[in-house]
Each structure stands twice: as structure tokens, then as C-alpha cells.
Design brief:
422 residues, Growth Hormone, Chain: A, single chain, mainly alpha
Length: 422
């Protein structure tokens, strides 16, 4: 006969673990929710393994080929500094020109296809530069810029496709952080490869082969990327809110690119001229800074999921200004380089946050185009201001860093205020 259990049988079952106390039940339920959340996050980040690997390999190629190998190529084969400037202009010109088409094509067709197509042009450009001539150098850098423009917007939109929007800031933080951390070894690798043979000309060719191997590996991993979502062939109209957001971010990227163009390339010259910094110490400063920025980028991505993104963007840039002043007025190299590290960390840790903010507020079918428009805005202003950078540095010295920080803060204040209104 079934009856109501008495209090002694219930108590006994609780002791034996067959029943749980209300307090224990709530604890078990809480642990279950935490475990489910951790499992959900782990599953999201599993999706980043392949794109993260592609990103690390691409930026490793960039740090080896664009940053180190091309300047060494110019000096080894006795080309002029003007040609180096033209080649960099060709790279950024084609990058800017194809950023918007690349993003649009990834919205209409497969993002994976556009990424692979872009990296095909990068591989082709790397191959062409092996034929030593000033014409082939310009053609090479043009192809690499074209490929970077096509693939860049598509790749960032791809990441926005594969992870949930609430994990997007952290996903960008992890991807970009790792893409800065490991490629920091690129200059050291190329330096060793170039100096190992008896002649530097042979070393340059070995460096080209190694760079091509890295970008081919990135393209091979890109082939394994799963396709994301269905593309639409018809035109997707922008809402008023989306137009405003893209306009604000394009203006933001344009001004950031302008400030970066006349300031970022001249930090090394500032340290060399003011403190007579040895080359080895300069390399150590930049290596430590790159590592610190990569860690901060990963951390800020996680933080960006838990705080107000607009406030985070504003507060970070408020502290960039005193750090920039510290770089200029510091009496010693150690103190100046500390402020440099602080400035770079504060300025770069906002990238995952505002990139996630942009991707979260536009339609899935226009993410590539939105990224392409903002990338083009950055590329145009960087290309123009970098041409002015030498003249500005000669006039103002290290105070160009402060000027850039003031400009950044002003535009951030304007954009944050405008985004809050809309």
C-alpha cells in the first residue's frame, strides 16, 4: 500500500543521498548552470581553432615579409628609398581599393571562397617578387595589397558568423591577441634565415620561399573552413540605424588611420634620436610591447562582454593621452618605453570591443560590406597621413604622438555620444 512517507524515511533517504536538501539542490542546480555555461563557451571557441590558425599564419607572413623582408630586399638589391615608399603606397592603395568589394563579395558569395581567393593573390605576389626588378616589386606589392583587401573584410565577417554575438568581443580578442603574439617571432626568424647563407641575396631568396610556405599553409587551412550561412544574391537595404552606425565607425576608422599614419612609424625614430637607443634594446622594447598588447587584447575581449562597450572605448582612450605625454617628457629611455607600452596597450585593447559592437549592430548579410567600408576609410587616411608623417615629425618631434592621442580622444567622444543618441 502506497502512503505518504514519514519524516524518518525522508531523513534517512537524504542521508543516503537519494534525496537532497533544498539548499543542496540549489547548489547543485547552480553548479549545473555554470558547467553548461562553460561547455557552451568551450564549444564556441572550438569554432575559432581553424580561423585562429589561419589568422596566426597570415600575420606571421605579414611580420616576416612586409615588415622585415621587403626593407632588406630594397637595401640588398640597391633599390632606392623612394621605390620602397612607392611599393608601400601600392600595397595600401590596392588594399583600400579592394576592401569594400571583398566585403561585398563575401556577403553575396561564400566568405570562405573570398578568403581563399584573396590569399591566392598574396601567394602570387610573393612568388613574383623573387624575380628581382623594380617593376616586379611594385606588381608584387600590388597583388599582396589586393589579396589583403579582398580577404580581410571577409575574414572578420566570417568570425562574426561562426560565434554567438554575446561571445563576439571575446572571440575577436582571442583571435587578434594570438595573431599578435606568435607573429612577433617573424622578424627574428627572417633575420636568422637571411643572415645564415654566405650571401644576403641568397638569404633573401630563402626568406621569400619561407614566407610563401607560411601563406600557402594559411590558404590550405582556409580550405578546411566550414561554410557559414546562406548568401543572398539580391540587394539587402540598409536600415537608418545601420547607415548611422557604419557612418560613425567609418569616421572613427578614418581618423584613427590618419593619426596612426603620422605617428606609429616614428616611435622607433624617436627612441633612436632622443635616447640613442641601441638596435638590440629597440627590438626588445617592441617585442615586449607586442607581447603585452596581445595579452591585453585577449583580456579586453573577455572584459568587453561584461561592461558597457561605449564606456570602455571612451575610458581607454582617456588614459591614452597622458601616456602619450609621458613618452615625450620622460627623462630616461626606460620610463619613456614604459609609457610607450602603456599607450599601445590602452589604444589597442579597444579593437575587439568596437569591432564586436559594429558586427552586432548590422544585418548578417551586410557584415562583410560594413567591415570593408570601415577598412577602406582607415586605409585611405593612413596612406595619406603616412606620406605627411616625415614632415610632421621633423616639425614637432615626439609631440606628434600627443597630437594623435588628442585627435583619437576627440573623435571617440563624438562617436560614443552619437551612438548613444541612435
Amino acid at each position: 500500500m502506497l502512503g505518504k512517507p514519514n519524516r524518518f524515511s525522508v531523513a534517512k533517504k537524504r542521508e543516503e543521498g537519494l534525496l537532497c536538501n533544498p539548499s543542496n539542490c540549489s547548489m547543485m542546480h547552480g553548479k549545473k548552470i555554470i558547467c553548461q555555461k562553460m561547455l557552451s563557451v568551450a564549444m564556441e571557441y572550438r569554432k575559432l581553432i581553424l580561423p585562429g590558425t589561419c589568422s596566426v599564419l597570415y600575420f606571421l607572413f605579414n611580420s616576416m615579409f612586409i615588415l622585415i623582408l621587403i626593407p632588406l630586399y630594397i637595401k640588398t638589391f640597391h633599390f632606392t628609398n623612394e621605390l620602397y615608399g612607392y611599393s608601400i603606397a601600392a600595397y595600401y592603395g590596392l588594399y583600400t581599393l579592394f576592401s569594400i568589394p571583398g566585403g561585398h563579395l563575401s556577403d553575396v558569395f561564400s566568405r570562405k571562397t573570398v578568403i581563399i581567393l584573396g590569399w591566392f593573390f598574396v601567394i602570387l605576389g610573393t612568388f613574383i617578387v623573387a624575380f628581382v626588378d623594380w617593376r616586379t616589386l611594385l606588381i608584387s606589392m600590388s597583388f599582396i595589397g589586393l589579396g589583403a583587401g579582398l580577404s580581410g573584410s571577409a575574414f572578420q565577417a566570417y568570425i562574426a558568423d561562426v560565434v554567438k554575438s554575446e561571445e563576439l568581443s571575446a572571440s575577436y580578442g582571442v583571435t587578434w591577441g594570438l595573431s599578435q603574439m606568435f607573429p612577433a617571432l617573424g622578424p627574428l626568424i627572417i633575420g636568422y634565415v637571411v643572415n645564415y647563407p654566405l650571401s644576403q641575396a641568397a638569404g633573401i631568396r630563402y626568406g621569400i620561399i619561407l614566407s610563401m610556405t607560411v601563406i600557402i599553409a594559411a590558404a590550405m587551412f582556409a580550405v578546411l573552413l566550414p561554410k557559414t550561412g546562406k548568401r543572398v544574391m539580391k540587394k539587402v537595404p540598409l536600415s537608418g540605424k545601420e547607415k548611422r552606425i557604419i557612418m560613425d565607425f567609418s569616421f572613427l576608422y578614418f581618423v584613427i588611420g590618419f593619426g596612426a599614419g603620422f605617428s606609429i612609424p616614428f616611435y622607433s625614430i624617436f627612441f633612436l634620436e632622443k635616447f640613442d637607443c641601441p638596435a638590440l634594446i629597440l627590438g626588445i622594447i617592441f617585442a615586449i610591447t607586442t607581447f603585452a598588447v596581445s595579452i591585453a587584447t585577449i583580456f579586453s575581449g573577455y572584459l568587453g562582454e561584461r561592461v558597457d562597450k561605449l564606456k570602455f572605448m571612451l575610458i581607454s582612450n582617456v588614459f591614452v593621452l597622458p601616456a602619450a605625454v609621458g613618452i615625450v617628457i620622460a627623462p630616461t629611455l626606460a620610463l619613456s618605453s614604459f609609457f610607450y607600452l602603456l599607450r599601445m596597450v590602452l589604444a589597442n585593447m579597444v579593437w575587439p570591443v568596437w569591432s564586436a559592437l559594429l558586427m552586432m549592430n548590422v544585418n548578417h548579410h551586410i557584415k562583410g560590406k560594413a567591415w570593408g567600408i570601415t577598412s577602406a576609410a582607415w586605409g585611405i587616411s593612413y596612406m595619406v597621413s603616412s606620406a605627411m608623417g616625415g614632415h610632421m615629425f621633423n616639425l614637432f618631434g615626439g609631440w606628434v604622438f600627443v597630437l594623435a592621442a588628442v585627435i583619437y580622444l576627440a573623435v571617440i567622444c563624438f562617436v560614443v555620444n552619437d551612438l548613444k543618441k541612435h
